[in-house]
Amino acid sequence: MTWFFSGWGPVAEACGKTALLVVTALAALRIAPRRTLAELRIFDFAVAVAVGAIIGRTATASGTSFMVGFGALVTLLALHTIIGRLRFSRRLRRLLDHPVRTLVTDGQVDRAAMRAAHLTDDDLDSALRQQGVDSLREVESVLYETQGAFTVRRRDRTKEER
Question: Of 18, 36, 67, 124, which is least packed with CB atoms within 10 Å of its CB?
Answer without folding.
Answer: 67
